[in-house]
UniProtKB/TrEMBL annotation:
SUPFAM superfamilies noted in UniProt: Metalloproteases ('zincins'), catalytic domain
Keywords: Disulfide bond, Hydrolase, Metal-binding, Metalloprotease, Protease, Signal, Zinc
Protein name per UniProt: Metalloprotease
Matches recorded under Gene3D superfamilies: Collagenase (Catalytic Domain)
GO-annotated biological processes: proteolysis
GO terms for MF: metal ion binding; metallopeptidase activity
Domain Peptidase M43 pregnancy-associated plasma-A: 197-284
InterPro entries hit by this protein: MetalloPept_cat_dom_sf, Peptidase_M43
Keyword Hydrolase set for record: yes
Short name of any one Pfam family annotated for the protein: Peptidase_M43
Length: 292
């Protein structure tokens, strides 16, 4: 049975086929104790996406230009408990205070327009990339256009996405699959949630980075184009916890452990680089029509 309540809040300031979840049993066991992001893109699809970016790239706008993006949050819950996925208004408000602080450097801020509460145990437990649950949920509840951020909070308790903290679509995916666009987030990663050390709000910051066109800092390991950003040093593998002064690739540069697009603990993450800011603004401008 579907029981939906809508709460209007005051303004606060990939196609799915490009997203895949690593579902091997060992990976799932690791996810119980480590950050697990389901936003992965194959080398072939990444090459295609980058060619598309170069074709559609819009001229740089005023570097001081700022933009406010509307956000719709859809809280999918099994029951009205914290364990069952129910989020308080305070948690959601704190999450966007953190997000707006984290994105200050980029000139992007987020305006929370609406929070919808959706009671559906199946969706809460089993939403995953390309699942029937995801398709039905997003088709029914997504709002806005390419520049509108939609966030669905779920439980990731069963199926291919079990153990994930979140996943997102990329800007270049919007044209081919607009109804699938947005971020799916583990409810307990919100501030004060039940998923330490990932309950200080930084998982949403990370996933929105993907939604804005950023890759993981460890993309491609020590070779190739990596994340296509010059000022994020190459990194052999994700940085879990907060391994200070780690240098995993030749050249002696320290890994970007504190970067929002790594896999570090929330308390270890501190920011984006200038190069990431430039790319994010360019991706939003080129694919989402944001005037920055």
């Amino acid at each position: 049975m579907l029981n939906m309540r809508s709460l209007i809040c005051s303004a606060l300031l990939l196609s799915s086929s490009l997203v895949s979840v690593l579902a091997a049993p060992k990976y799932r066991r690791d996810l119980q104790h480590r950050r697990g992001c389901g936003t992965h893109i194959s080398a072939k699809h990444k090459t295609s996406a980058e060619k598309k970016f170069q074709t559609h790239r819009m001229p740089a706008a005023d570097p001081d230009a700022k933009a406010v993006l509307d956000v719709y949050v859809h809280v999918v819950y099994a029951n009205e408990t914290q364990e069952g996925g129910y989020l308080s208004n305070r948690q959601i408000t704190e999450q966007f205070e953190i997000m707006n602080q984290d994105y200050t450097k980029t000139g992007i801020s987020f305006n929370l327009v609406n929070v919808t509460y959706i009671e559906n145990e199946d969706w809460f437990m089993r939403v995953a990339p390309e699942s029937e649950q995801e398709k039905t949920l997003k088709t029914e509840y997504r709002h806005g256009n390419a520049s509108t951020l939609n966030i669905w909070t779920v439980g990731f308790q069963e199926g291919e996405a079990a153990g994930l903290l979140g996943y997102a679509t990329f800007p270049s995916d919007y044209e081919s699959a607009p109804t699938m666009d947005g971020v799916v987030l583990l409810h307990s990663t919100m501030p004060g949630g039940l998923k330490p050390p990932y309950n200080k709000g930084r998982t949403l910051t990370h996933e929105v980075g993907h939604w804005g066109g950023l890759y993981h800092t460890f993309e491609g390991g020590c070779s190739g184009n990596g994340d296509y950003i010059d000022d994020t040093p190459s990194e052999r593998e994700p940085g879990y916890g907060c391994p200070a002064a780690r240098s995993s690739c030749p050249g002696g540069k320290q890994d970007p452990i504190t970067n929002f697009m790594n896999y570090s603990d929330d308390s270890c993450m501190t920011g984006f680089t200038d190069g990431q800011t430039t790319r994010l603004r360019s991706q939003l401008r080129s694919f989402r029509g944001v005037a920055v």
